[in-house]
């Protein structure tokens, strides 16, 4: 389980997140929803060990990310692009990540096929479209067959076929008993994908719960979101 409790972080004296608390259980897709600047990225960076909180804890299976013994086999993540050098090919990038994490080379071919990149595996990443770069980032996240999948804006740059593909991938991954945390500001896509929601606005968690409960009494997730956050947005 992902357990986030009391996370607080300021940048240059300005609060980015305040007392952020929520949990993510296996077997369901949890959507982390909020507008740009709401604090989603700050929360995920702390969860993934890329930043330190001023207060609070962020744990994966009871441990901070930096104390996980096999991080890539425990957590697969996509945050701020694929992370691949533009001069490398997709295959070279994935092969290097696999070797450095003790993952069999055969897994590289599997994720290339799974993400639809097999035909462009020897193409330099610098020539990739935004959507192809997203697919490579997702391939990297899947490489270690992790128990936990954390994706930030994964549909960014994907065409309609790609959006449908990632939607099914996330649903299948959760149904296999894994933990899936999906961060986005796209309410229409979240309504199609998420089982549970964590809504954040102006650095604070506004509400958490099953999608059906969060949207109860509202014609859409968008209407529910604006009703719930009307007092928190500047």
TrEMBL record:
One of its GO terms (molecular function) is ATP binding. InterPro entries: AAA+_ATPase, ABC_transporter-like_ATP-bd, P-loop_NTPase. Keywords: ATP-binding, Nucleotide-binding, Transport. SUPFAM superfamilies: P-loop containing nucleoside triphosphate hydrolases. It comes from the Bacteria. Residues 2-227 form the ABC transporter domain. Belongs to the ABC transporter superfamily. This is ABC transporter ATP-binding protein. It comes from Nonomuraea insulae. The lineage of its organism: Bacteria, Bacillati, Actinomycetota, Actinomycetes, Streptosporangiales.
């Amino acid at each position: 389980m992902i357990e986030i409790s009391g996370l607080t972080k300021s940048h240059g004296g300005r609060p980015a997140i305040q007392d952020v608390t929520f949990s993510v259980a296996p077997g369901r897709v949890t959507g982390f929803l909020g507008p740009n600047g709401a604090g989603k990225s700050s929360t995920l960076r702390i969860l993934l060990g890329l930043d330190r909180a001023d207060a609070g804890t962020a744990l994966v299976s009871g441990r901070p990310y930096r104390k996980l013994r096999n991080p890539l086999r425990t957590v697969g993540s996509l945050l701020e692009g694929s992370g691949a050098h533009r001069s490398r090919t997709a295959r070279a990038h994935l092969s290097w990540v696999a070797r450095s994490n003790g993952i069999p080379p055969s897994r590289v071919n599997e994720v290339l096929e799974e993400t639809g990149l097999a035909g462009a595996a020897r193409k330099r990443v610098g020539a990739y479209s935004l959507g192809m770069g997203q697919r490579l980032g997702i391939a990297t996240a899947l490489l270690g067959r992790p128990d936990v999948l954390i994706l930030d804006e994964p549909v960014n740059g994907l065409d309609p076929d790609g959006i449908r593909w990632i939607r099914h991938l996330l649903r299948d991954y959760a149904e296999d008993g894994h933990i899936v945390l999906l961060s986005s500001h796209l309410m229409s896509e979240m309504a199609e994908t998420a089982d549970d929601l964590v809504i954040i606005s102006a650095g604070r968690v506004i509400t958490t719960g099953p999608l059906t409960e969060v949207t109860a009494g509202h014609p859409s997730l968008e209407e529910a979101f604006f009703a719930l956050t009307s007092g928190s947005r500047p």
